[in-house]
Write a structure and sequence with these properties.
Layout lengths: L19 E5 L5 H10 L5 E5 L11 H17 L4 E4 L2 H6 L1 H6 L5 E2 L2 H11 L4 E6 L1 H6 L1 H9 L4 E6 L3 H7 L5 H16 L4 E4 L8 H8 L4 E4 H15 L12 E5 L4 H11 L6 E3 L5
Parallel strand pairs: 1-2, 1-3, 2-9, 3-4, 5-6, 5-7, 7-8, 9-10
Helix pairs in contact: 1-11, 5-7, 5-11, 9-10
C-alpha cells in the first residue's frame, strides 16, 4: 500500500522532528520549499538539487528513473520523514521508483496540481503549461481526467519560461512578448483555469495573469503540493510540534555558486549555507 511503511519500530511521534525531504533536478523545486515554509514554518527541511545533471526533461525515462532512485537514497540517508518530488519530470515518469525506494510517504507535484485545477474550474476547460518533457508525458492530462473525465485539457509547452525565470527577467518586455506567443492558443480555447506545470513558472505568474487579463485562474502546483504535505503530515501524525525556528538544509551535486545566486530569487530569502555532495554519482 502506498503509505504503508515501517520505521524500524519507531513510532510516528518519534519522527515528528525529522525533516521533510525535497528533491529536484535543480533550482525550481525551491518554489515548493517556499510554499512549505509559508504554511509549515516549524518543519525542518532537507533540499537536494541535482545541479550537476540538470535538466532531467530531455533525458530518457530510464535515465530519469535511475537519477530519481539516487536522489531518493540520498534523502533517505538524511533520515527524512517524507519525500516531496519537486520535479515535474520525475513526478511524471518515475514517481513509482521513488515510492518503491522509500519507506516514508512520497508526494509528487502533478496530482496535487491536477486535483486543485479540477476544483477551481467552472467551464471545465483547463490549460496546462510546462516543459516539453512534462507536456509530452501527458501526466497532467491523465491526472486531471482521472479526477474528472468530463474536463477538456489543453496543453502547451513553454520551454523559454525556465531560462527567463532563472535570469530574473520577471517584468521584462521580452518575457511578456514570449508569454503572449505561448499562451495565445490557450486563450483561443477559452480556458478558465491554467496549471503552472513547472516549478519555475510561479515566478512569472504576474506576466501570465496579465496575458489572460484576469480571465483564467492560475493553479500553482507548488502551492497545491504544500497543502498535500499538510494533509499527509496530519494524517500520519508527523507534524512537528516544535515552535522553534526550522532548520533548512540545502545540498547540490555541483558547485553551489550559481544555485545560491539564483536560488534566493526562487526561495524569496537568503539560502544560507549550500553544501556540495561529494561522490554523489
Amino acid at each position: 500500500m502506498l503509505f504503508s511503511y515501517i520505521f524500524n519500530n519507531m513510532s510516528n511521534k518519534n519522527l515528528q522532528d525529522k525533516p521533510i525531504g525535497v528533491f529536484d533536478s535543480g533550482i525550481g523545486g525551491l518554489t515548493v520549499v517556499r510554499s512549505i515554509m509559508k504554511h509549515l514554518p516549524h518543519e525542518n527541511i532537507v533540499y537536494f538539487g541535482d545541479t550537476a545533471r540538470v535538466p532531467y526533461g530531455p533525458k530518457s525515462a530510464e535515465v530519469v528513473r535511475q537519477y530519481a532512485a539516487q536522489d531518493t537514497k540520498f534523502l533517505a540517508e538524511k533520515g527524512v520523514k517524507m519525500i516531496v518530488v519537486a520535479c515535474n519530470t520525475v513526478s511524471s515518469v518515475a514517481l513509482e521508483i521513488v515510492q518503491k525506494n522509500s519507506r516514508v510517504p512520497v508526494i509528487g507535484v502533478i496530482d496535487p496540481g491536477a486535483r486543485a485545477a479540477v476544483k477551481v474550474t467552472r467551464n471545465k476547460r483547463i490549460g496546462v503549461i510546462g516543459t516539453v518533457g512534462t507536456i509530452r508525458s501527458d501526466a497532467y492530462t491523465n491526472s486531471i481526467r482521472q479526477a474528472d473525465p468530463s474536463v477538456v485539457v489543453i496543453s502547451q509547452p513553454c520551454p523559454l519560461f525556465v531560462p527567463l525565470a532563472e535570469e530574473g527577467w520577471i517584468d521584462h518586455k521580452a518575457t511578456e512578448l514570449i508569454a503572449r506567443e505561448y499562451l495565445f492558443p490557450l486563450k483561443l480555447e477559452r480556458i478558465d483555469t491554467l496549471v503552472l506545470g513547472c516549478t519555475h513558472y510561479p515566478l512569472l505568474a504576474k506576466v501570465i495573469e496579465n496575458v489572460f487579463e484576469g480571465k483564467a485562474a492560475l493553479v500553482d502546483s507548488a502551492e497545491a503540493t504544500a497543502h498535500e504535505v499538510i494533509r499527509l503530515l496530519d494524517e500520519h501524525n508527523l507534524r512537528n510540534p516544535s515552535t522553534m525556528k526550522a532548520n533548512i538544509q540545502f545540498f547540490v551535486s555541483d558547485i553551489p555558486y550559481k544555485f545560491e545566486e539564483i536560488g534566493e530569487r526562487f526561495l524569496g530569502r537568503k539560502l544560507g549555507r549550500v553544501r556540495k555532495v561529494e561522490g554523489f554519482f
